[in-house]
Amino acid sequence: MAYETIIVEVEDHVALITLNRPDALNALNDQLLSELVKALEDAQNNDKVRCIVITGSEKAFAAGADIKMMSEKSFVDVFAGDLFGPEAEGIMRIRKPIIAAVSGYALGGGCELAMMCDFIICSDTAKFGQPEINLGVIAGMGGSQRLTRFIGKSKSMDMNLTGRFMDAEEAERSGLVSRVVPAKKLMEETMTAAQKIAEKSMIAVMAVKEAVNRSYEVPLREGLLFERRVFQSLFATEDQKEGMSAFAEKREAQFRDK
Ligand code: HXC
């Protein structure tokens, strides 16, 4: 399918989705978000795809939801139309791993989109923020919820109340991102990580995603039980037999997602 606001490339089992509204610093409008969800669903349904990467431009991952699109909307418009609700749900339904490769601004909905991915690798130029407070609103896709769980209440309050930006070094120190790399190496490092994931058993990969995400939803005891049962159930797969035999035989495992 031809997209106008994103570019999708599938290579070596990785779907690379590049947000592409350069004139608006990749601001998220209805079209971009629905194209993004469609591309993610296609990647989910494409057997060749084993990992997904979402990225933006060097200057901006995404500078937020499109303020010009939102400015004339009324409460009734956004409430009755559930602005950004179905798209956020659509992204959360994806079961394959998604890495955010962030360079430049990841603000508002852009920071929230990055946090909806499974982990974030950013360049040393990255700037994260929830500046919605400057517009007289608050975050609407996880900036007050996910960010608080990721970096703690004090820092989240600071970000959401002052609207200040956090640089890459602080983002790594705070646990928002998994790695910071030099800007020139961002895509190389991210694609290497994606390739590494693509080599694993897809069943185990999807199980990891579900188990780690579950840790944000349920009490520890429930989460531990869920993890143990999933761990045990993976012994029903051929990939578990292959992975453990390959170790014993000192060779690379050949996983078949079975
Ligand atoms: C619409 C945007 C935009 C946005 C930038 N642009 N951010 N358009 N929505 N969120 C547009 C600008 O209007 C401008 O277009 C062009 O992109 C370049 O931006 P500049 O401001 O000229 O660039 P610069 O001076 O380098 O400043 C970069 C910036 C600034 C610091 C990122 O653009 C900025 O503060 N943007 C808004 C950030 C923000 O408030 N995000 C939160 C949005 S609310 P023109 O045509 O004028 O040249 C949100 C709510 C989420 O995300 C809730 C649920 C999803």
Which properties best describe this structure?
258 residues; alpha/beta; 2-enoyl-CoA Hydratase, Chain A, domain 1; Lyase 2-enoyl-coa Hydratase, Chain  A, domain 2; 2 domains; six-stranded mixed sheet; four-stranded mixed sheet; binds hexanoyl-coenzyme A
How would you characterize the overall build of this protein?
With 258 residues, this protein is α/β, with parallel strands linked by helices. It folds into 2 domains: 6-198, 2-enoyl-CoA Hydratase, Chain A, domain 1, CATH 3.90.226.10; 201-249, Lyase 2-enoyl-coa Hydratase, Chain  A, domain 2 (Orthogonal Bundle), CATH 1.10.12.10. The protein contains 12 helices and 10 strands. The strands form 2 sheets. Strands 1-2-3-5-7-10 form a 6-stranded mixed sheet, with helices on both faces. Strand 2, helix 1 and strand 3 (51-55) form a beta-alpha-beta unit. The longest helix has 16 residues, at 30-45. The protein is globular. Hexanoyl-coenzyme A is lined by residues 24-25, 27, 63-68, 84, 105, 107-109, 112, 131-132, 135, 139-141. Its EC number is 4.2.1.17. It catalyses: a (3S)-3-hydroxyacyl-CoA = a (2E)-enoyl-CoA + H2O; a 4-saturated-(3S)-3-hydroxyacyl-CoA = a (3E)-enoyl-CoA + H2O.
